[in-house]
Design a protein that fits this description.
The chain is α/β, with parallel strands linked by helices. It has a single domain, classed as Metallo-beta-lactamase, Chain A (4-Layer Sandwich). The chain contains 9 helices and 16 strands.
Length: 318
């Protein structure tokens, strides 16, 4: 019976993925609107980094606060990123593991999150989706983006059930998909480029957010195969290092193309995988990138007005 249910859910997932429909609640809720020195590791370290002024940073309209804030949550050997957009919308990229689900829920509540306009699921590994069923059951969700790939695990089945039970549909993640485009704010999926990979990690949804003259690249667990396929502009001030700093990712050529000033690595303290790789750390150091590790810094919060980046490290969140 369980095998039949699993196959049915996987079939349903593939069906909705191929549809690429706009997400909405079945109850009829309205659709969403569209050269650096390492930072010290005190309880709340802060650095202000100037970027060249954009040629024309237009005055924000509507509910724009003028700030984009990215929270890299300390969820151990897992990924979870909360993005507060300058138009008051909210994006969540991954949801940590099952063991960190309450940490994610508590953090979202502490930040006053009432709903999530954009939910990006990079790929169906447990350390990226484990906490999402509880998030989906607890918050109103706007659009959901997920790659066209299934995974025969209980947590993936639980994720699909939560999406289905709440009346949501899924947009398929693929390179060239624009999630949001507004004056001086552009959010686009740049990978996966292909649709068939041997490694599940290479299906990872890779998202680039550009606000004014500041940009972020969120890579999931994308490996070098996926990195090499990306053809779009991926230059970014901040790089979320893929796959917890594993040497499967962040090749020298990819790092050269991104050319970041800062990098964030999601990694659990004393993890059994040996993450992050010393080779990756050496490449980042050689490129002059300031690295923030969640096992050392705790939650990392970056705030930008499109011109400068302010960084807080919050060790107390561990």
């Amino acid at each position: 019976m369980r095998n039949r249910k699993t196959l049915l859910l996987i079939f349903l997932a593939l069906t909705v993925l191929l549809s690429s429909c706009t997400v909405s609640r079945s109850c009829g809720a309205s659709e969403p609107q569209v050269s650096s020195e390492p930072v010290s590791s005190g309880p709340s370290s802060r650095v202000l980094v100037s970027q060249p002024s954009p040629t024309a940073l237009l005055a924000p309209a509507g509910d724009f606060s003028g700030l984009l804030t990215v929270h890299f949550l300390d969820v151990g050997q897992a990924d979870c990123i909360l993005v507060r957009l300058p138009n008051a919308q909210t994006m969540l990229i991954d949801g940590g593991s099952r063991s960190s689900s309450q940490t994610v829920l508590d953090y979202l509540v502490s930040q006053g999150v009432g709903s999530i306009d954009f939910l990006v699921i990079t790929h169906p590994h447990e350390d990226h989706i484990g906490g999402l069923p509880e998030v989906i059951d607890s918050f109103d969700i706007g659009e959901i983006y997920m790659p066209r790939v299934s995974h025969n695990t209980q947590i993936f089945e639980r994720l699909l059930t939560a999406i289905q039970d709440n009346g949501y549909r899924i947009n398929a993640s693929s390179a060239g998909t624009v999630i949001l485009s507004a004056p001086d704010l552009h959010i686009e999926i740049v990978a996966p480029v292909g649709d068939s990979y041997r490694e599940l990690n290479n299906y990872s949804t890779v998202v680039r957010i550009a606000y004014g003259n500041v940009s972020f690249l969120f890579t999931g667990d994308a490996e070098t195969v996926s990195e090499n396929e990306i053809t779009g502009d991926i230059r970014s001030d901040v790089l979320k290092v893929a796959h917890h700093g594993s040497d499967t990712s962040t090749s020298g050529s990819f790092l050269q193309r991104v050319d970041p000033s800062y990098a964030v690595i999601f990694v659990g303290a004393n993890n059994s995988y040996g993450h992050p790789s010393q080779d990756v750390l050496a490449r980042l150091l050689a490129a002059g990138v300031s690295v923030f590790r969640t096992d050392e810094a705790g939650t990392v919060v970056m705030t930008t007005d499109g011109v400068t980046i302010e960084i807080d490290t919050l060790e107390g969140t561990r």
